Structures are given as C-alpha cells and as structure tokens.
Amino acid sequence: MKLVEYPDAEMMMMDLADKLASELSSALRANDTASLAVPGGTTPGPIFDSLCAVDLDWARVQVMLTDERWVPETSERSNTRLLRERLLTDRAAAATYLPLYADAPTPEEKLAELAASLSPALPLTVALLGMGADMHTASIFPGADQLDLALQGSDRLVAMRAPGAPEPRITLSATVLNAAMSRHIVIVGGEKRAALERARHLSPQEAPVAAVLNGATVHWAEA
Length: 223
Ligand SMILES: O=C(O)[C@H](O)[C@@H](O)[C@H](O)[C@H](O)COP(=O)(O)O
Known about the structure:
10 strands, EC 3.1.1.31, hydrolase, 6-phosphogluconolactonase_DevB, Rossmann fold, 6-phosphogluconolactonase, alpha/beta, Glc/Gal-6P_isomerase, binds 6-phosphogluconic acid
C-alpha cells in the first residue's frame, strides 16, 4: 500500500480528480472503453465536482458505484442520486452509467441481473474506494451476513446486511475491486487515519478494508 498525505482535503480532492482522469485517459488511448467505480457516502462529492468537468471522451467511459444502498433514487440515502447530481453531469453526462439498484423489495431479487449487466465494464480500469471508521470499504462491513462471500467468493456482486448499515446493501466483491487496474482509497480525518493504521494489522474479517490495501494508493488529508 502506498500512502499519499495532502496539506488539505480540498487540494486532495482536486489532485485525485486529475489522477483519475489521467488514468482513464491513458486507458482510452489503448482501449475502446474504460470503466470507473466510485463510492457514495459523504467524502467523494468534491472529487466528482472536478471530475465531471474534465475534457475526456466520456462517451467511452462506463461509470458505476462500488456499492449501493437498497433504496430508490428518490431517497436522500441513494448513492445513485449523488452520482447523478455531482458526477454524471457536465461533460461526464455522456458516460454510460451501470446502476447497482433496480426496483425490487430486496437486492437478492435483482442480483444476477445486475451482475450480468456489469460485464462490459470488467475488469475495472479504475476503482476509487472510501472507508468507514469501522474499517468497512464499499459495503463490505465487519459482521456482515455475507462477509466471507464478499471477501473471498468469485461472485461479482454480493447482497449484504450488516449491523453498521441502516438498509440492505449491494456491493462489488473484493475480487472485482482487486482486479481493477488501479485502486485508490480516499480518507479524511484523524479517526479514519487511525482506523487505517489498525486495519493494516488486522484480518479482512475484522477490518474488511485490509482485503483491498495491497497495491492500493491511500490518499489522506486531516481536513
Ligand atoms: O454507500 C456508502 O456508504 C459508501 O460507498 C461507503 O463505502 C463509504 O465510502 C464509506 O462508508 C465512507 O463513507 P463516508 O465517506 O460517508 O465517511
């Protein structure tokens, strides 16, 4: 794992948007398409605000979430909603969005269909991940009901219920995340930095983020 420390979060978000854009752009020079998976939650909004305006052949880029909360787009908790408002706009509105949510009461009902729809985007070109203070990443939570499947299984997508998640989740598996050509983790603040340091010495069962650290670049700023 490589750790990059930034003087402040604003600078980090802008640098990271540049970095993601340049990785996508290099991939598009060599291939017809490129894919980008991004987290939801409260951290990545400013990255999306910069990235969406970048001059890139977005029509050849597939965008997806690393994980989604099983709620419709009308919900404040929908990560898709965040993406539509802040990433799939401006120049990036031309990208193809591959959703991880479909209208059904539970994720299990749509799991196979959603997993199949990801084929054109895999393996991922770039995966950006967040991390919670409980050391979860994507929706791979400590104590989740399908933790082993998400950490070690060969399935692309896993439906999850976890004590730390207020609604059912759907998440890319560690296998899919680790197959990405490039992997970045973005964290802000002292609490998450301390959690990251703890995770480096714990098993993925205790600290799921540990499953994706090898070969990743972690980007950190205090605030
Ligand atoms: O849907 C989600 O919640 C995310 O995809 C999740 O994995 C997120 O990255 C972490 O929970 C960190 O969340 P914050 O950035 O809000 O701290």
